[in-house]
Please model this.
Amino acid sequence: MSIEKVLIVDDEALVRNFLVETLKRKHLDVSSAENGLKALALLKEHTYDLVITDMKMPDLTGIDLLHKIKEMSPHTLVVVVTAYGSVENAVEAMRLGAYNYLIKPFSPDTIEAILEKAREHVSLVHENQYLRQQITETNASPLVIGESVAIKKIMDDVRQVAQSNASVFINGESGTGKEVIAQAIHFNSPRTKKPFIKVNCAAVPESLVESEFFGHEKGAFTGANAKRLGRFELAHSGTLLLDEVTEIPILLQAKLLRAIQEQEFERIEGTKPVKVDVRLISTSNRDINQAIQNKNLREDLYYRLNVVPIHLPPLRERKEDIMP
Model:
């Protein structure tokens, strides 16, 4: 999920081909260049998750290339390759932003160890980006206040459904606390330490909805200057909240249904399916039967999302909760 496209840069054909073949056996999309200038041309056309570059090359050194990569694609990891006895050069490269280094000669096991560490690093970076965005609005113990029979029944349902992976559909008027209940489900579930990713379906421009959900590759459309992970991918192993799900354009709902059924999708202009494990919680303030009749919501998608329904009554219908 994290490292997919790799660029190998080395003027020695033997080393370059060895790295390419080793990484292709790991089912990665691998490109290669025999010098830094050709590498730069590729970097202008594509976004790479990882670049492995030799330190000593004609025209453009590994350090020079490292500087260029950090300017063009700051999130790309760079591993430098150096000869035995020149470790100080590799350490200097890491000080300048390289992620790690390889010392010649190296084995496939060494490359695999570097690759696994890079995958862990990228996964943590993506998860932390979203956790930082949400830290001010997400509470590990969401506050639900109420003494009414209705609220007590809802919280009993929350505790029970939290232990499963079933999709939950929360329906209620605006302001009734649908997002708070969604947080309560996530943070009382076995996924509590995994990402809780939210997407406000009503706030995303129609032209960007597919990218928001499933991500895109570099150059997928005007303005797509780098690869972007969608909310489904960022929510992997955690929970995805589809807030106001009836606002999703009807044409995209078929693709959403397939992603839910298969637990996989493709980024825009992507060539490989991305597999995910995501627990879905959806909300809506609409009359669902009316939304289905008006073609705002596909009926088959609704039944996929509505495995466990929760209805939140407004405060005027549970007046005993007003004082607390």
Remarks:
- The radius of gyration is 24 Å.
- The chain has two domains: 5-132, 137-321.
- The chain has a mean pLDDT of 88.
